[in-house]
Amino acid sequence: MAFSSFxxxxxxxxxxxxxxxxAAVARGCFIMEREALLDFKAxxxxxxxxxxxxxxxxxxxxxxVACDTTTGHVVMLDLxxxxxxxxxxxxxxxxxxxxxxxxxxxxxxxxxxxxxIRMPEFIGSFKKLRYLNxxxxxxxxxxxxxxxxxxxxxxxxxYVALDFASHVGSLDWLSHLxxxxxxxxxxxxxxxxxxxxxxxxMLPSLRVLRMPSVxxxxxxxxxxxxxxxxxxxxxxxxxxxxxxxxxxxxxxxxSLTHLYLHNSWFYGGTVPRSIVDLRRLEELHMWRNQLIGxxxxxxxxxxxxxxLDLGSNLFNGSLPSSIGKLSNLTELYLSGxxxxxxxxxxxxxxxxxxxxLDLNGNSITMSIGQSWVPPFQLRFVDLNNCQLGPQFPxxxxxxxxxxxxxxxxxxxxxxxPAWFWNISSSTITDLDLSNNQIEGKLPSFFKFIKLxxxxxxxxxFEGPLPIMLPSxxxxxxxxxxxxxxxxxxxxxxxxxxxxNNMFDGxxxxxICQWTxxxxLDLSNNxxxxxxxxxxxxxxxxLQFLDLGNNHLSGExxxxxxxxxxxxxxxxxxNKFSGEVPLTLKNCTNLWFLDLxxxxxVGSITLWIGxxxxxLVVLRLRSNIFSGVIPWQLTQFQQLQILDLAxxxxxxxxxxxxxxxxxxxxxxxxxxFCSYESDVLTKGQDLSYLQCxxxxxxxLDLSNNxxxxxxxxxxxxxxxxxxxxxxxxxxxGKIPWEIGGIKSLESLDLSINDLSGSxxxxxxxxxxxxxxxxxxxxxxxxxxxxxxLQTFIDPSxxxxxxxxxxxxxxxxxxNNKTAQNIIEEYRKEIPEWLWFYISMVLGYVxxxxxxxxxxxxxxxxxxxxxxxxxxxxxxFWVQ
Length: 878
Description:
Layout: H1 2-25, H2 31-42, E1 44-45, E2 65-67, E3 74-78, E4 90-91, E5 106-108, E6 131-133, E7 155-157, E8 182-184, H3 196-200, E9 208-210, E10 234-236, E11 258-260, E12 283-285, E13 292-293, E14 307-309, E15 314-315, E16 331-333, E17 342-343, E18 356-358, E19 365-366, E20 380-382, E21 404-406, E22 413-415, E23 430-432, E24 437-441, E25 453-455, E26 460-463, E27 475-477, E28 482-483, E29 495-497, E30 519-521, E31 528-529, H4 534-538, E32 544-546, E33 551-554, E34 568-570, E35 575-579, E36 592-594, E37 599-603, E38 617-619, E39 624-628, E40 641-643, E41 648-652, H5 661-664, E42 676-681, E43 684-689, E44 698-700, E45 705-709, E46 722-724, E47 729-733, E48 746-748, E49 753-756, E50 770-772, E51 777-781, E52 802-804, H6 814-828, H7 831-856, H8 858-877
Parallel strand pairs: 3-5, 5-6, 6-7, 7-8, 8-9, 9-10, 10-11, 11-12, 12-14, 13-15, 14-16, 16-18, 17-19, 18-20, 20-21, 21-23, 22-24, 23-25, 24-26, 25-27, 26-28, 27-29, 29-30, 30-32, 31-33, 32-34, 33-35, 34-36, 35-37, 36-38, 37-39, 38-40, 39-41, 40-44, 41-45, 44-46, 45-47, 46-48, 47-49, 48-50, ...
Antiparallel strand pairs: 1-4, 2-3, 42-43
């Protein structure tokens, strides 16, 4: 009876517990947990309604929510954004109500946008959490130290979890995460962390450590004990600034399978032989460091290697033939080193899995028989600058899976084999055969159905252009060949370079059908006729247009002004006439405008426009432009090269010429790095190619009809390297301020009406290597100080009858020299100042004459002092 009563009580107790549990679960979800999730939903922005399923009572069925099948508690919250940025949840607030999810084991908020709020402190209270992923969430502030309470955590991913402006002050909290196996701190700002290695070294179970691009600049060379030597498989310390040799402790981490040390400024020392202790290593990435030595003695023992990337280092010697034993190798990158020697079939003997071969930029000669059949199928081939020729490599015809093929500057000559246009026709996207001597004609119809980039520059191809191109082709570069004929219709092409060929017809209107075109270079041909009007109407995406060095004529069509995206317009050395269209004002994005060597007329004030503030290069030389030089040009803040030479400009040089901001600065401006410009400097016409143009700042107003004085403000252009004002009617003195142009290398003021002496300040121009002051009215002694002593050619000063002293043969007498100097000072000092100088000199001379007489004449001295005593006595009596 007692037993039955006890059993009944137990049943009632269990029934009560079940009833309470049912009330709390509320038909499929604990009420407190559901309310916590709804509160979280209310605190975030959801522009794409990703949380639209979060309705009703069954929260375990909501998207991104998972519950334990036994207890019913929420154990997983996975809100990872796998779509584009616009699908991201937006951080507005995140309060601690989520703490109701006390059984949470998995939390993933990655790739959402919480940049407006701080990383929540309460995350450190989820004691059962094993997986935490906050990557690419962009929280503000630092990392809360309470994350150290998550002692059960296996995975912690904080990749770009903070805005990079937020500095992490300490990693001491990491030492408490003793169960951690995966740690990703990529792209955080750890520059303020004092000892990152000690914190990481406290994690004995760590298998994956990723810390690329976190601002590290120290790494211990040796460590007594590394806790993770038997567990770590992935180590990524790439894109840091260590500036040290490779650490010795690294070779003791024998469990490593993936090692990423690229672009971290490791230098010196060969790769130690102890690297062979990393017997499990599958991927080794060390590109873009400054490591030296050769590859022999260790590389052939890395039998597990799948990816080897040692590019952009200082490795030398030859490639050991034993590399052919690495049968697991799929990717080999050795570009940008100093490796030389000969490579033969032996080097590839067992590389049956090889897919990537990159030997670019080495001095390697490939000596491979024409009948060799490779054991691999390559996807990526870069052998630029290696010697493959003279014959075209026949082994390529067996490669049917190539996606990118780069054989530029490989010393290949002869005719392109017929089979080449069929290989990889269904797979190839990038093809570069430039800078060889390959002959032949292009097929009328390309069979490459996926081709995106084709570069055949600087070869000996000839004949007409292909009638049709693949619709996928974006970039076509055929410069420096012998192509002829008309331009076909290529409606999908985006970039075309056909310069330095033999096109000699008119500029066909078919070009107007290239409606997606962004870049067009037809320079250095023999094209004639006018620019089609439709060009400006149809090519609305055009940014670069180069028609220079042809025989084009007529007026520049006003439709050019419709190209609002135009960045570069190069029309130099043609036969264009008439006035520049006023519509050019609409091209407000122009940074390069070259209309030199044509027959253009009119005033540039009408079309230059105050809105073209992006101009870096403006060349109008050798035309028939007239009128004054507009002062508005001095407001162009980016102007780096201004060439108005050989025109009919009149009036004076703008007085505010010193306002040209870029020319005032001695800093280098990298505005562009893909073009060239001609600059007449140091007495010769020089072409500044590509990135070297950033170093040139030039002002050339020579051979016009300019008059007046050289503005003193020109001395403010401290960054100017070339100044040419020759062949004008400039008057007055060479301003003393010209010595402020500290970067000046070439100065030409010849054939003007300049007078007075040569300012001594020219001696302070230490970079000056070319000087021409001939045929002016300069006078006096030629300064002999410092830099001017290096100019020993007397022709520099010829045509100035009153100059004297070395290096010319006319000597200067002392009297004449002194007289000239006084006369120069007299001219430079205003008359009112001479009046006051005379007064002071008269007073000083009178005073000392009187004092001298008193000193020499005793009678005068006694009489003078007696008179003073008498006056004193009378004054005292009064």
